[in-house]
Amino acid sequence: MDIREVLSYTFLGNTVSDYLLSVGILLFGFIFKTLLSKILTGVMFKMVRRFSDKDNQANFKRLLLQPLEMVLFLIFLFFAFNVLDYPLDPSVTRKGDPFFKVFMLRTYQVFVIVAITWVITRFVDFIGLIFSHRAEKTASKLDDQLVPFFKDFTKVIVWILAFMVMLGSVFGVNVAGLVAGLGVGGLAIAFAAKESLENLLASFTIFLDHPFVVGDLVEVGGITGTIEKIGFRSTRIRTLEKTFVTVPNKHMIDKPLNNLTLRTFRRVGFDITLTYTTTSAQMKAISTELQQFIDNHPNTNQDGRVRFQTLGASSKNIMVLYFVESMDWNEYIDIKEEVAYKVVEIVERHGAEFAFPTQTLYFQQQQERQPQPMQSINYTAATDLE
């Protein structure tokens, strides 16, 4: 049999050559969609290159490669099925059309809208990346939190518009009437979305009042950590234990918030407990020398106080209070360690001893008809002291 006769053989209204052409277009699109996507992203990047750094080309391709592959494959899918003839026009739907035809057409339209929206949102991500790099070069931290906020807000708007287009063009819904109906039922929707609306309004309050910015160390609702991102619904905090906590924006403004970054100093306070055998001269010498050390330290201010404060149950207590002029955590704990070593050194040099809780027990041992003098022993109970 001649090959031309095989190719011209008609089946279901289409020749074998038509089917082979359709399959060939599909295979070509499936095999070369990645290569074509890379070429297309290179052409698109040239349009925005003057607004971006040259190093961002890799990020641009990374963001847009997958959504463009999906768009190109849908285009090849359209051409592959467009070369075939059908008993019913597949590009339009009419009343009484088979369910399978309507389902396939609407599914394809939904995928097209989703793919195009995906490309747009990834492009928004790239624009946000450009502005994030520019914000990192500025001294202000306000733009660092505004960029991700407006990026996410824009993406939400894009997806809402895409959903409206999908309802109107694919499912034939009267979008204008739907929006008007939402105006009537807006009260019920607002009540149902009460928490979301509160968080959204709280995000605007955060941006207007600036109680904190990205990078600040805050304490709110029993959570202490560094602000990493402020979204339009929630704020993300990296705790001191390196866990990642998401807090609704409503709680960030309703609860007392302590912005630890805005502190000018870090306060350190503790007691030196010395035994009752420590003399007054030793107490004065220890207090005076430690006071001079704290006053002369380059990372503490002049508000430090070292005073003989109280007589405890088993010790003489010297209060030590000073302020560290550093917001860096590592430097802060290094200074605390340095002062603690100095305390031990001063106390040992003056011949004093640290006290710990002790109890003195008195007991009388009696023998038959022969009273014994009262004896006493000291019982020492050592505990871990903070």
Number of domains: 3
Helix content: 40-55%
- End-to-end Cα distance, whole Å, is 98 Å
Mean pLDDT: 81
**Separate helix tally:** 11
Description:
54% of the residues lie in helices and 17% in strands. The chain is of the alpha+beta class and 386 residues long. The protein folds into three domains: 181 residues; 67 residues, Roll (SH3 type barrels); 88 residues, Alpha-Beta Plaits, CATH 3.30.70. The chain has a five-stranded antiparallel sheet. The longest helix is centred in the first third of the chain and has 38 residues. It is elongated and about 120 Å long.
Short description:
This protein is of the alpha+beta class and 386 residues long. It has helices at residues 3-7, 16-48, 57-82, 99-136, 142-170, 175-184, 186-192, 194-209, 249-254, 280-296, 329-349, and strands at residues 10-11, 14-15, 217-220, 223-230, 234-239, 244-248, 257-259, 266-274, 305-311, 316-324, 358-363, 375-380.
Could you outline the blueprint of secondary structure elements for this entry?
Blueprint (H helix, E strand, L loop, with lengths): L2 H5 L2 E2 L2 E2 H33 L8 H26 L16 H38 L5 H29 L4 H10 L1 H7 L1 H16 L7 E4 L2 E8 L3 E6 L4 E5 H6 L2 E3 L6 E9 L5 H17 L8 E7 L4 E9 L4 H21 L8 E6 L11 E6 L6
Antiparallel strand pairs: 1-2, 3-4, 3-7, 4-5, 5-6, 8-10, 9-10, 11-12
Helix pairs in contact: 2-3, 3-4, 4-5, 10-11
